[in-house]
Amino acid sequence: MELEIKTLTPLWTGGVKSGRVDRIQETGIIGSLRWWYEAILRGLGGKVCDPTTQKCLYDPEKPNNGLCDVCKIFGATGWRRRFRLVVHDHTTHDPSVEPRVVSTRRYTTPGGQTRTPTWYFPDNLNDKPRSGNLTIQIQGTTPDFQPVIIGGLLQFVADWGTVGARAQMGFGVFEPANGRLDTKPLYDGLISSAGTCTYTTIPSLQNIFLARIRLENATVRDTFDLKYDLRQLFSGQQNSPLRHFIMGTVQGRRMAAKVKISRPYDNGLMRVWGWIPEDAGVYQGFWNRNSVVDVIYHHLSTNYALEVWREVNSPRDTVAPNISSTQALLRSLLRLEEGDNAE
Ligand SMILES: [Zn+2]
C-alpha cells in the first residue's frame, strides 16, 4: 500500500546516528509506530516485552518462537520485521524551528536572580526538522501480514499522537493527505492478540491520556510555556524527583518526559498526551497516578479551551466518561463506534 502524509508540526527523525543523510529516516517512523502498537496492545492485556529491559530473542525451540505479539510484527534479533516501509521524502527544512525558544515566564533562583526559561535545539545537526509531504510505501514481507494494519496505526497516531524523535520539542504531528485510512484491520489485529496481562510501570493504553487544547493565536512559545507551567505544578519542595519523572530532565540521569506537548497547528490546536504509570517510587505515598493526571487535566481545562480528553475508566474523558473497557475506548479512538464520526 502507498499513502501520503502531510506534516502539521515539523518532523524530525534524526539524531540517533551521526553522519546520516539529511532526510526523513524510515527507522524513526517505524520506531514510533512500534511504540504506539506496544502501548495499545499492553492496554488490551496482550503479551508485550519491554524493549528497554527484556527484549524478545528469536528461538525456534520456544513457544511462539520466543516472540511476543509485537516482536512478531516489528521484528527482534533473529526475526525479520513483517513489513517493509519506504519513505519518498518531499519535505524541506522547516525554517520555523528556531535554535532557541525563550519563555514568557520568569523565575527566581535561590540566589535571588531573575531568570527566563529557555529551550535550545541544536542547530548544528546534519539532519534538521522538516515539513511538507511524504509518501510512505508499506509492503508485507510475508503473505500472512496485511500492510493495512500499519496504515490503520498511522491513522491512530495521526489522530492522537506524534511520530519521530523529540516529541517533547513539539515535533511530529501529521495527517494523511488523501483522507482517512481504514482502522478496522488494526483493531482486528490488536484484538486477536488481546489477553489478561497488566503493566503498571510502562506505557499502556490503560495509563495513557490523549488531549487537544485550543489557544487562539498560539505560537511555539506557548508550547514551551505550557511545558514550564506543568513542570511547576510538580515542583513543590519535596517534588523535584516527581517533576523530573513526569516532565523529564537532562540533568544527571537523563529521563524522557512522559507528557508531550505539540507545537500549535490548525490555528492554535495543541496536542497534549502522555502516560503516567500506576506504580512509581517517586509517588512516595503522597501522589498516585490519578492525582498526577488530575493536576494536568485541571491545568488544561482551566487555562485553555479543552477540545477533547480521552482516557480509559475516567470521569475526565470528554467523549465517553468512565468507559471501563480498553477495547471500547480503542474502538472509540479509532472511530469504529457509531456516532464517533461526528467528532
Ligand atoms: Zn517482544
Descriptive report:
The protein is an alpha+beta fold. It has one domain. It is built from eight helices and 14 strands. A hairpin with a 5-residue loop joins β5 and β6. It is globular. The model has no long low-confidence stretch (mean pLDDT 91). The site of zinc ion has 7 residues, from loops.
Mean pLDDT: 91
Distance between the termini: 27 Å
Q: How much helix, percentage-wise, in residues?
A: 25-40%
Number of beta-strand segments? 14
- Provide the spatial order of strands within the biggest beta sheet: 2-9-1-10
Q: What about the largest sheet?
A: 4 strands, antiparallel
Helix count, per DSSP? Answer: 8
Low-confidence stretches: none
- The H/E string reads EHHEEEEEEEEHEHEHHEEHEH
Structure class: alpha+beta
Task: Supply the number of structural domains.
Answer: 1
User: Which strand-content bin applies to the residues?
Assistant: 15-25%
The general outline is globular
Q: Ligands in the structure?
A: zinc ion
Taking all Cα atoms into account, the compactness measure Rg is 20 Å
Q: What's the quaternary structure here?
A: single chain
